[in-house]
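quick one before i forget lol
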Amino acid sequence: MKRFLLPLPFLLFIPVLLFAMDFQMVTFKTENAGKVIFDHDLHLKKLGSNCTVCHKSIFPITTDAPPVTMAEMEQGKSCGVCHNKTKAFGLNECVKCHLVKEVPIQIPQFGTIVFSHNFHLGMYGCGDCHNKLFKPAPGNPHISMRQMEQGASCGACHDGNTAFTVKENCTKCHAVKDIAFTADALFSHKFHLEMYKCADCHSKLFVAGPESKRHSMRDMEQGNSCGGCHEAVPLSASKGIAANAIRPQRTSRSRRLTHFSATSSIWVSIAATTVIAVYLSAAPAASGIPWRTWPS
C-alpha cells in the first residue's frame, strides 16, 4: 500500500508543474507581425521576483486577454508601462521582441530572391517600411518591376535618390550566373551584361527562371531567343555555311590586325616576285643558253 501512496504527491504536483511551464514562456500572436514570446524568468529577475508589479494591474492572468496595439503601448498601456526608454528599452527597438529573419520572396517566372532584414536595419527603422509598404507577415501581394519603377514596394526607396534605382541595377538583388545548355553551349551573363541591360532580353526574348523555354536553332533563325540579336548573315549556300552564322564584331584591334595582314601580304608578294625575277635573269647566264631559246 505504501508503494502506491509515495508517488501520489508527485502525481498531484504534475498539473501545477505543467501550469507553471505554460506560463514561463507566453506566446502572443499578433495580427501582422508574427509571434512574440514573453519570457517570465527574464522579467522576474529584473523585478526581484515581484509578480504584483504586472499582475493584475497591467496584465490580467488569463488566456483570453484582449489584444493591445502598438499605438496603445506607445500611449503607456500594456508593455508600454515599462518600455518607455526610462524603465526599459523603448518600443521602437522592434527586433528585441519581434524576431526578424532573411525573407525569401518568390518571383513569378524568375525564381527566389532573398530580402535581408539585417542589412536594411543597419540603415532604416522598422517603421520606415511597416506597415505602409509591407505587411510584416506572409501574404503580401506580388508587385511587378513596373510598379516598383512607379514607386511601389521596394521602389519607394530604390528610386535613384534614397537608394540605387530598380531600373538599372537588377543584379544587386537578382543573382545571375552562367547557364549551361545542351551540346556544351554556355551562356555567360557577365559577358553580355558588359554590353547590354537585363531589360534588353528579359522578358521579351527570355523568361528568366526555371520555366524558361528552350528554343531550337530553327527558332533562332526566325528571330527568337538568341536570334533576336544574333541575326542572320546572308552567305553563299553553296559553301555549306548556315545562314544563321553570327556576324563578328569588328573592333579597332581587329581592324589593325586586318590592315597589318593585308600590308604583309603585299610585301610578301613583292618579295616573291623579286626573287623569281632575279632567278630567271641569272639562270640563262649560268647555263650559257639565251633565255629566249628555252623551251616553253
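fyi The radius of gyration is 39 Å.
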